[in-house]
Amino acid sequence: MAWTKYQLFLAGLMLTTGSINTLSAKWADMFSAPGCSGTPNHSFSHPFVQAVCMFLGELSCLAVFYILICHDRRRPAPTIEPGQSFNPLLFLPPAICDMAGTSIMYVALNMTSASSFQMLRGAVIIFTGLLSVAFLGRRLASSQWIGILITILGLVVVGLADFVSGNRDDSHKLSDVITGDLLIIMAQIIVSVQMVLEEKFIYKHNVHPLKAVGTEGFFGFVILTLLLIPMFYIPAGSFGSNPRQVLEDALDAFCQIGHKPLIVLALLGNTVSIAFFNFAGISVTKEISATTRMVLDSLRTLVIWAVSLALGWESFHGLQILGFLILLLGTALYNGLHKPLMARLPCWSTEQETETGDAGETERLLGAEKAAQES
């Protein structure tokens, strides 16, 4: 069945804004400017400030939700279901997970390449699958277990590519690249916990997706903004890449922005793109399918890698291509993208289709992922 112009627009919007989200965050990391009190030029390394900007983008989804509701109520026959009332504090635990996972990923993005960052985020299906079995009582099909194993292999290949490139690339130290890769994978564990919490406690309340994203964005924005105050005084040693070597120096970030206003464009790109990416992702799931959303998310990795190469942010490594293809295969098997092809084979029985019946439910769980959405 051919896609409508609106569906093509949504797919293009999701692919474009999702790519801009990661690329703009990496672009901000690459700026160098003087800081406060005459400190010399240094890189814009402020992951927690960037995370605050991302949550501001998610928070804007809440405003969009209420605007859509108000506009819809003026119609003779409203079409938007606002969902049932609920306790907003239900969103606090997943919002804390989102905040922790996003912040760690922004720290890691400063240490490794944008393409490896996006590829390694594929580890989320491993931990989501395992946690859904342990805490949601879900049974995974054999193809999903195979997908998890293939994804692990893909992560090993991508990690090996980073290890090889770390020995030849002067833009990142080998120790930083390895640390960054490990932090990304650790962040996916936290993101998986977030998704399982959302599945267990939130989706049963029939909350509108935009309202869910916006409410989590509100908690993340408020909490992380307040945490910037103690972070200004907490020493981080060599881990703190700002001149004062504290966990986060928000004043230094504003001073650097004052010296180089172009940084605002990168931060604004991160904020606006995450809002449109969430809207497009939700709309693609509704208008087309969750499977299409996962395919577009995989294509986003390819776009980020190609743009990074074109801009000279990283050099070509064949192992990355191999790792990407293996990760793509693992993701496809886990999310049941092979079923339409297998269904055409004479040996494919309805019993096998039943065996993979839980894939759609798990796919819905994965479809709820934001940046992180995430980022």
UniProtKB/TrEMBL annotation:
Question: Is Transmembrane among this UniProt entry's keywords?
Answer: yes
**What residues form the membrane-spanning segments?**
48-69, 89-108, 120-138, 145-165, 177-197, 218-236, 262-282, 294-313, 319-337
- Keyword field contains DNA-binding: no
Quaternary structure annotation from Swiss-Prot or TrEMBL: Interacts with SLC25A5.
**Listed PANTHER family:** PTHR13146, SOLUTE CARRIER FAMILY 35 MEMBER F6
What the record says about family reads: Belongs to the SLC35F solute transporter family.
- Protein known as: Solute carrier family 35 member F6
